[in-house]
Amino acid sequence: MYTRTNVYAKGGNFDDPTLLWYATAVAAMKKLALDEPTSWGFYAAMHGFNVNVWKSVNIPTTPVPSKSIQGAYWKQCQHGSWYFLPWHRGYLLGFEKVVRSFVVAAGGPADWALPFWNYFDPGENKLPPAFAALKLPDGTPNPLYTPERYGPNGDGNVYVDLSEVNEDALGLHYFTGKTAANPGFGGVDTGFSHSGRHHGALEQQPHDQVHGLVGGQQGNVSTGMVGWMADPTTAGFDPIFWLHHANIDRLWVVWNALAPANTDPTDSKWVKGPASIGEREFIAPLPGGADYIYTPGQVADTTALGYTYSELTPPSPAPSLAARFATLGIVAPASLAPGAENVDKKAELVGATQGSVPVAGAEIRASVALDSATRKKVVNSFTAVSAASPEPDRLYLHLENITGTNDATRLAVYVGPPADAHAASGTEQIAGHIALFGVREASEPDGGHAGHGISLVLDITKIVDQLHLDRAFDVDKLSVRLVPSHPVDKGDNISIGRISVYREGF
Length: 506
Ligand SMILES: [Cu+2]
What we know:
Blueprint: E1 2-4, H1 17-31, H2 40-47, H3 51-56, H4 67-73, H5 84-105, H6 129-132, H7 201-215, H8 241-258, H9 268-271, E2 282-285, E3 291-294, H10 296-299, H11 302-305, E4 307-309, H12 321-328, E5 346-352, E6 357-358, E7 364-370, H13 372-381, E8 394-403, E9 410-416, E10 429-435, H14 439-443, E11 454-459, H15 461-469, E12 477-484, E13 495-505
Parallel strand pairs: 1-4
Antiparallel strand pairs: 2-3, 5-7, 5-13, 6-13, 7-12, 8-11, 8-13, 9-10, 9-12
Helix pairs in contact: 1-5, 5-8, 7-8
Bound molecules: copper (II) ion.
Copper (II) ion binds at residues 207, 211, 235, 245.
């Protein structure tokens, strides 16, 4: 049994032999040509490949393997899909075996395992020092360092801004959303989905956000070079990528153990993977020329795969339903079993913007018109709590079909009463942060998804609860304000197809 340990267990620097051996193996993999299946570039290209993008960010693009090899191995990463978690788990497993083989070849430990970076642990949100150092302890260049990593402010100071990330996904009790309102913990039913549309809750937060925060873009306007981590086509080139994904993989294990309802899909399309419906199989090269071909069902249990994590304690629990009832001042009926909340609910559109919302400049404002009959259902749900309808509606803000060319874009999203409402009727609140990881590929008209872009979801139940308490929800529209981390250049062509509000209730 291999144990993946916390990168900060020994300070996150080269006092930790795990990191020194990682650097040794990364250097060896980087020496191999791009068309070697166990090379650094080949493994990164399995996540994504685009000649022009690679050239634009200082990545060598030759020698490429044959078209058939590329077709089988490259551009495999699953995003906007219920395959997001299992595909990346197998990818990490193959990578870890390759790294271990180079560690052992260099005289290192046979039980080497990939560390994880849990940026949520106190004091550990800064890029681990072993990745920021220019030199190894022996004075040679550090293969874990890359200059194409700009951080949240575009100045090379790399850290995960904790105000932009959360682990709220762990509070969901369903892997796949059963309504259109919420894509669930692990994402929605898709086929093979290299750049899919609907990002699952864990994929969106913290996964996408950390990619955007670590990669960032150079300078303080959106025209600077995009950091490798901020774009799926280049992310695998950054040695920290693998530690970020080990943390996401770890959170999947944590989620499975949190509640009996937190089970993986049993649908054979998920269990047997896309190859079972005639699409590409999941495949990773192993040391010595073999391949690891896997299905989601085969990677669902990490113990069976022979590894575990040194840290599997869940973060402090998400606010309970009881807390919501207390805030609203209503009496809860017999408590809902975790998982029951998704069973019989319906999703319904409450309102949407008229047309698309262009995203440019330092601030963007939009107005979501609410349908009065549907809005009344939401209002009524606060007072109609009963055995048949055990919880008031939950509300979700959808940012649908976001298209554009700059994956490093991050936006803070605020929701409040209409701008023209009386000042006393409630105030704007932050709904969350989004990062447009994957937007460029998902916007390409010749991509697998006809250029639909990406769709992200923010749970605004708390905001609507507060508006309801402030008697400010009975309005015909809500205002939405977007604040980009960098002023967005018009040339990035970023646009949100529609901003909408969905209710999910009984
Ligand atoms: Cu990722």
